[in-house]
Amino acid sequence: MTSLDKPTSETDQPHRTDQQDADAKAVTEAALFEAFGGVRGMVETVLPGLLFVTIFTINKDLTASAFAALAVSVVLVVVRLLRKDTVKHAFSGVFGVAFGVLFAKMTGNAKDFYLPGMIYTLGLALAYLVTTLAGLPLIGLILGPVFKENLSWRTRNPGRKKAYAKASYAWGLILLAKCAILFPLYWWADTAQLGWVLVALKIPPFLLAVYLTWVFLAKAPPPIDVFAEMEAEEEAEKARKAEAEQSARAAEARPYDL
């Protein structure tokens, strides 16, 4: 077993100072901001649905509401492309809105604009719970690359794996609670009522889940930077090869004993 594979226990972690705790919280906050898109990502998530329900509430026109939502989603992607920003959050919004428009136009029921997103939310909630029960919490798969630890937390950092498990359970249960509100409304509320409730439930559950993730990870052991470890191993290997070559040249240059 190499040094890169050796697991550590929670008791092996050194006691952290207040400054180290503050640094850990700051790093975790920055990583979560990057992973989930920050304020701009939230705006891009809310705006298409807000535009749809606003227009539909005013004129009850499914076509105008649906294509206005799709248009603003496309504009958000174009703006990101022009600014050379990451487009993953905006693109996910475009696909979500496009599926909603397709469902609503196929059935002629304006409420079906929201159905793909609701099904996705339910599936995501189950994914968080099932992957955690399987020992591979989804939030760890999402954030591992962001923290440059990849999957090292699975075998080498049990305290961090536990934090990822807690965070994944939190995400799963919060999203299930959201679904428990939305799916009954889909059956008995009208389109405008469902739309306004869905808009209202876009940000608060998300912020709660992100906050709990931040709390769990800020208290967890620091991530193991596997990229830095690999670079260090490569540098050490280069140094060993250089030393061996130097020794070989020295041996060749040494005069033979008579």
Automatic annotation (TrEMBL):
UniProt keyword terms in alphabetical order: Membrane, Transmembrane, Transmembrane helix
| Key word Transmembrane present | yes
Spans of biased composition, class Basic and acidic residues? Answer: 7-21
Q: Where is this region: Disordered?
A: 1-21, 237-258
Q: Name one Pfam family in it.
A: DUF3159
Where are the membrane-spanning stretches?
Answer: 62-82, 89-106, 118-147, 168-188, 194-217
| Protein name in UniProt | DUF3159 domain-containing protein
Organism of origin:
Streptomyces silvae
